[in-house]
Amino acid sequence: ALPQWRQSSYAGDAIITAVGLYEGLWMSCAAQSTGQLQCRLHDSLLALDAHVQTSRALMVVSLLLGFFGLIISVVGMKCTRVGEDDPITKGRVAVAGGILFILSGLCTLAAVSLYAARVTHEFFNPSTPVNARYEFGSALFVGWAAAGLAGLGGSLLCCSCPAGERHQPQRYRPSQPSTAREYV
């Protein structure tokens, strides 16, 4: 939701500028030197570049996966009384939530990295005017951190499944009481 996916670059001759430009997936903003911020939502979905449309779609999918992962993980926690009382079933539900978190993190990582690759490509393109170049915005770094934390959290949930789920428990027969004949 942050508009700072890319920000105007101050490289080149125009070091002192009165306006800073920010663009994001949902809006573009102009920050005046007086502290005033004016934002405008993107008018048309079809008029956007393909990398912005793809990043939007990946971020929406990531949010949905994260939401469902959160719900499923809460159901799979040992401290909740929702669902089954069987610890193995609860462990499997927690692992499913962890997998959804990992997928959410991968979608976020793909969206942010795709957008960053496009910003880098446009910055180093010699045909792009120096005044129209953009650099990474703070939202990209927040996105990379969020992807890492979602992947880490999902991995921890996947590793928290009970030991009985990973390996089938071995069943031992109780030993028979010995009789007096065996000692003779």
TrEMBL record:
Main location class: other
Gene Ontology CC terms: bicellular tight junction; plasma membrane
Residues annotated as transmembrane: 57-77, 93-116, 136-163
InterPro entries: Claudin, Claudin_CS, PMP22/EMP/MP20/Claudin
Keywords on record: Cell junction, Cell membrane, Membrane, Tight junction, Transmembrane, Transmembrane helix
Membrane-topology descriptor: Multi-pass membrane protein
UniProt keyword Chloroplast, yes or no: no
Cell compartments where the protein resides: Cell junction, Tight junction; Cell membrane
Gene3D superfamilies, alphabetized: 1.20.140.150
GO MF term (any one): structural molecule activity
Family recorded in the similarity comment: Belongs to the claudin family.
Protein purpose: Claudins function as major constituents of the tight junction complexes that regulate the permeability of epithelia.
Protein name: Claudin
Gene: Cldn19_1
